[in-house]
Amino acid sequence: MKDQQKRSRRANGETAVYFGKDGRWHARVPMGYRDNGEPYRRHITRLTEDLLMEEVKRLEKQRDQGTAQQPGKLWTVEKWLWHWVENIAKEAVSENTYDGYEVAVRVHLVPGIGKHRIDRLEPEHLESLYRRMKAKGSKPATAHQAHRTARTALGEAVRRGHAAKNAAALAKPPRVEEAEDEIEPYSVEEIQSLLIEVNKRRNSARWMLALALGLRQGETLGLRWADVDLENEYLKLRRNRLRPKYAHGCKEAAPCGRKAGYCPLRSQVRRETKNTKSRAGRRAVPLPGPLVRMLRAHKEVQARERKATGDLWTESEYVFTKPRGGPLSPNTDYHDWKKLITDAGVRDARLHDARHTAATVLMLLGVPDRVIDQIMGWEPGTSARMRARYLHVPDAMLKDVAQKIAEAIWGPSEKVLVDKDQDNEV
User: Fold this and answer.
1) Which end of the chain is more exposed for a tag (fewer CB within 10 A), N or C?
2) DSSP-derived secondary structure for 262-307
């Protein structure tokens, strides 16, 4: 036993195994180096030597594969998520993407799984969270956003050696009923009804850019006159208008009691626009003749508004502005859309559904896929998936195909059968 109690002599960098005075087997496994350069050894203990050596082999394998927990302070899920979202993701993604990450972390992930140690988080912890979210009434898409956020954040933790596995990547993602399956693009008749109502409104061309060409809200509101070539009948998309974000301007000693966006002393803390990053997003889009005429008329109306407003006009160079200039608010734009479809008497739909309508119309017109991708701004690597999502086959087209199949396969044989029946009757 005395021999067992002695620490085994190992060369530097090798695991030391010994039987302790406490009656247990111990090992100190070299796992790397601390931030200050000192060697880091992981101390483990088991009742038997066999159990100890199993754990030693597991740790040594993790170390050799580069998947072992790094030495130093262990992260909780909460601390890692906040570190990731504020110091890593914030600098790498767009403002809108960051907002989605931040909400998922603050509202769902931290309250749901934040207390776990990141190296001990299991897929079952996440699956349990998704079930609780569903029970509390969260939409499937909300749970899926939380899942995607967790998968991205934990993937970065694994890459940096803070965790051995990505529990979110192993977890079964929450089932999302494909919302796009329920989307029924506007028919040509409905688009024409909208057009009648659009022509009664200010900024009328704004809505036809969405319905005819599928421009996203941010692309349309970020459009400047320098991007529009009415002579050659095309426009260039180079930037997106971002949703404004505000901070309180009131003092803590005298708070206004309102949300930041409604604070009388609020300040804008987000840039107004961002340049389009992707190559596909920066694109030239052809303008149909009627839309060119609408834009010409709109430009004349805007010039009259500028003259009538005088010093009160806010110059912004945007194509679509407020009555006194200045960029349109995305929130105001959304409510204007809802009022438009109500007044036109067409089905309720999201503003983004206009993009589905435009893509489907292009398909019905027989426009080649490559040209559809160009107009819609889809990257070559994802264009097939985006077409599957945005191009909807109307029932009328399916019925037409069924009729053609019937004529091609059953048509002649049915005619022969009918002729024979008539002969028999005679």
Assistant:
1) C
2) G-TT-EE-S-SEEE--STTTSEEEE--HHHHHHHHHHHHHHHHHHH
Distance CA 125, CA 166 (A): 12
CATH architecture of the domain with residue range 79-177: Orthogonal Bundle (1.10)
More confident residue, 72 or 308: 308
Reported as type and span, the H/E element at residue 234 is: strand 234-237
Distance in angstroms (rounded) separating the CA atoms of residues 54 and 22: 20
- Looking at residue 235, the DSSP 8-state letter turns out to be E
CATH topology of domain 188-238+276-389: hpI Integrase; Chain A (1.10.443)
pLDDT digits (tens, 9 = 90+) for 74-85: 789 999 999 999
Residue 231's alpha-carbon distances to 144, 220, 234, 303, 330, in angstroms, are 46, 19, 8, 18, 29
Strands 246-247 and 267-268: antiparallel
CA 407 to chain centre: 45
Q: What is the pTM of this model?
A: 0.68
> How many angstroms separate the CA atoms of 175 and 284, rounded?
37
SS3 85: helix
Count other C-beta atoms under 10 Å from residue 224's C-beta: 16
